Amino acid sequence: MRFFFLATLGLASACAAPGISVMGGQTGVARVGEYSFTVHHKGSRAEAYRTNVMARPQAREVFAAGATAIEQVTGCRVIRSSVRGDVALIQGDLLC
Predict the structure, then answer these.
(1) Chain segment 67-79, per-residue pLDDT in tens
(2) CB pairs under 8 A, 24+ apart, for 14-17?
(3) Dist CA 71 CA 9 (whole Å)
(4) If we measure between CA atoms, which residue out of 14, 80, 84 comes closest to residue 48?
(5) How distant, in Å, are the alpha carbons of 1, 2, 3, 4 from that of 85?
(6) Alpha-helical regions (H) of 14-58
């Protein structure tokens, strides 16, 4: 039982880890409306991980909030046509 708990905890702690393209970059947090994000960015790439628990969030709202969170943390504009991902992870390219 102890092994299962530790393995689950280990997997859960890696959920908001940065992807390869932004690894070694900067990290910040932002709250946009009812959504909370951890944002990782490096160069012209950024990722926003939604960190709050919600039942069936609306994808359109999450994408818009994620792009806004990236802009808040980075101080750069998100190229809207580059926004991709899902309701847990939003990725985008930056225009600084």
Answers:
(1) 999 999 999 999 9
(2) 15/49, 16/49, 16/51
(3) 31
(4) 84
(5) 34, 34, 32, 30
(6) none
